[in-house]
Amino acid sequence: MKLTILGCYSATPRTLNNTTSQVLEINNHMFLIDCGEGTQVQLRKHKIKFNRIKHIFISHLHGDHFFGLVGLISTFRLLTREADLHIYGPKGIKEVVTLQMKLADSWTNYKLIFHELTSENSELIFEDDLVEVHTIPLNHRVYTNGFLFKEKEGDRKLDINAVEAANINIAYYTKLKQGFNVKNNDGVLIDNKKVTTPANKPKSYAFCSDTMYKEDIVPIIKNVDVLYHESTFLEKHAHLGPKTKHSTAKEAAKIARLANTGTLLLGHYSTRYDGLKAFKEEAQEVFNNVELSEDGKTFEFN
Amino acid sequence: MKLTILGCYSATPRTLNNTTSQVLEINNHMFLIDCGEGTQVQLRKHKIKFNRIKHIFISHLHGDHFFGLVGLISTFRLLTREADLHIYGPKGIKEVVTLQMKLADSWTNYKLIFHELTSENSELIFEDDLVEVHTIPLNHRVYTNGFLFKEKEGDRKLDINAVEAANINIAYYTKLKQGFNVKNNDGVLIDNKKVTTPANKPKSYAFCSDTMYKEDIVPIIKNVDVLYHESTFLEKHAHLGPKTKHSTAKEAAKIARLANTGTLLLGHYSTRYDGLKAFKEEAQEVFNNVELSEDGKTFEFN
């Protein structure tokens, strides 16, 4: 599981700070999460192949999370993309994108599939053999969802020496990987656990931005390996949290502790602060394993 | 008259190439012309004060000319702008901006005034004591206007030695600047031309992008000091011009020659070419005084 931060600052793009966008590589998928203005340039800069992106998840319709979307869609068109593109986001996202295509008289030559979200409860919005994606309803000034990405339990791994020693026909290997006991060439039933080892532990990633402190999300993200939780403010501006519906670094850490998260990743920093050190320090008063998002930084979680 | 090129490439923003946007300083106005994605970051980079921009002119609703507009409007809001902002552009521009403000539940605290354009003929769209702005109807795949910016004839200049020698009361200086003959302290009528010198020659700038070769614009831009004319293609791709409704460098030069332009400024280059030298060379086969737009370049025309 690999996460590339394309932008992690709040409000407005600046010369050196990009607004929210990230790429999550998980079980061969490449998911784009949020798409602030300039995301397409950040994707180029970090040499992320446009064609690998087939699913884009938009948390909410504030500009710093989606003003780059229509440009990216338009660039895909100019590059003669053919693959379908799925877009998950709040109701209204389809209207705003299609209006712009209509005004430009520039319709995509690939299929654009919108999945508009309206539920106030967590729901499964994507699933295949490898991965599930669930929404995480957040509390912000407009309708907002975080997203929970979960690998599915993979196949068990063959212990090839043990399999051969047990004299099992190659035709049964798939069954073994699926966890079944099988008979060997001598008709003896072989205990699966003696010839296979467990699958890799499925990994999970929760993206929670933008939101004020919301304990309701804890059951949804319980035991997640990595939690990205917005931390717009430091403690000295905690009073702005409820007003603007954002969180402090400490509040993000409280959620991480309650949810028994592996790693907490902070981000969506207000640009009023010089440097990010204090965000980490304040979060670590509550929760130990804290990392700082930074534009262009890549995290590998294995 | 000073022009700053924020972006001058066609189609999509790239790591080093920005899409169309320019700032024209003329007679104390600071006009923003077109606003591709990333324009707000380019404005910051070139230290252009946001508050000095009171008028934005959008040629057409293709993304590489306007996807940065809504982000800029939103950033002005976040920076608590108070001054009115006038936006001139094709019909539809108001709907697309206001839809995004509605979805974000983020209305501007300053006054946003849209001037939607629909005419197929050149029209006067802005005028004050110092400057006029006219549309230049272009021929592109969607409804498109260029813009002609014209300084008005300013005041005559006092020859202060001559004025004092002529014994003219200071109360008449404004009249003198306006070109009137006035009586001096001895009651003698003084010929204005003897105590003043002509005003600076009013300057003019025409922005023509995007368009295929269109001779109809020549009477509108006749004798303009500086003509920016798009030159998407080199001669070897001239066949793409009518199809995509763009021009070659040579066609831009033909327009400049017919219009008796002072300087021709090329831009809106396709990113398929390595370097810009050939654009200038091909244009100079037809018209001598050619300059190349480049992102970040500033031209002073005095």
UniProtKB/TrEMBL annotation, chains A, B:
Keyword list, A-Z: Endonuclease, Hydrolase, Metal-binding, Nuclease, tRNA processing, Zinc
CC cofactor note: Binds 2 Zn(2+) ions.
Listed EC numbers: 3.1.26.11
Catalysed reactions, as listed in the record: Endonucleolytic cleavage of RNA, removing extra 3' nucleotides from tRNA precursor, generating 3' termini of tRNAs. A 3'-hydroxy group is left at the tRNA terminus and a 5'-phosphoryl group is left at the trailer molecule
Single GO MF descriptor: 3'-tRNA processing endoribonuclease activity
Enzyme class per UniProt: hydrolase
Active site: D64 (proton acceptor)
Assembly behavior: Homodimer.
Described function: Zinc phosphodiesterase, which displays some tRNA 3'-processing endonuclease activity. Probably involved in tRNA maturation, by removing a 3'-trailer from precursor tRNA.
Family indicated by similarity: Belongs to the RNase Z family.
Name of protein: Ribonuclease Z
Organism: Wocania arenilitoris
